[in-house]
Amino acid sequence: MTPGQSERIELVGKYSAALSVIEVALGSVLHSVHLPLVGNFLSLNQGFLLCRGSIEAKSRGLKPVGYSISNVAAVLKSLAPAGKKLGPMLSLSAQGLLFALGEGALGANLAGWMLGMALLSLWTFVQPIVTYYLFFGSDLFSALHYLFDRTLPYHGISLGDLAWLLAAVVVLKMAAGAGLAWVAWRTQGRAGFQEKLLRLAAEQGARPIDGVALSRRAALWLSFRDLFRPLFLLSLAATACFLFFSEHSAAQRFWILLRPVAIGFIFFYFSRTLTLDRWLARLQGTRAEGFALACQSALAELRRFGRSPGTGHGSS
């Protein structure tokens, strides 16, 4: 392994550990105050750290690190003993890929990072659509269209109005993401906000991989409870309403509604029990050994953070 490769692995491990710790702390704070759209704030936080990591990698003459940081952070998420894993892992990896696409298109510079942040910002709007399409299939969109047609006109609102509102929210978030890329570029070499978030994580006792693993019974119970999420119940109710007023027999309605419940339960269960530690061990001696070493470096950073909370490990 060359010195450059070793330096890049260390950098990826440092930022991946920081991303994992800050996500735990920031997510806890945002959820505790019942702030809506928490995922959007976490995605912008991830993008900001990817910008910081990419800026530092360029200053050292290293290859881009954004996608690697995201994938290592996703693996670290799988090692957490409790909490949802599959959805956040997909989000971390997909957002890292979108960021890397922007950087690849325009280069490792401010323009590339701003484009990467704008693309990354889109994923929080895409992932729920993909997930619930997996659960419900095309019936969900038919149900929502039917529901909107029966309710929106009474309030003087059209589907076009909703589309414009959604577009405005998306553009606003993309602009915020591009703005954060500019902030990261302007504050390169300074810890600032990132250091404050790490101190917050230390104060909250954030430990992404510490704790007691979920038992199978607890995972089953929590997966069952996930079926009562407001968005899932609303989607199920909209589909049931559509099927009730459409030409479907009672048996057809039952089997169509059983699908999202069954798929949702399986998804939620694996989301809480998935772990990739055994898979990582198999990467030793392969072409992906560098990725496994980056994961080990990130785990070492997390252990140092655990022993010395508040010291700011993982910041630049």
State the main characteristics.
316 residues; 0% strand; mainly alpha; 14 helices; single chain
Mean pLDDT: 77
Helix content: over 70%
What are the segments in which pLDDT stays under 50 over at least 5 consecutive residues? 308-316
How is the biggest beta sheet arranged?
none
* Helix vs. strand class: mainly alpha
N-C termini distance: 24 Å
Number of strands: 0
Task: Note the quaternary state here.
Answer: single chain
The radius of gyration computed from the alpha-carbon positions, rounded to a whole number of angstroms, is 21 Å
Shape: globular
Q: Helical segment tally?
A: 14
Number of domains: 1
Order of H and E elements = HHHHHHHHHHHHHH
What share of residues are in beta strands? under 5%
Short description:
This protein has 316 residues and is mainly α. The chain has 14 helices and no strands.
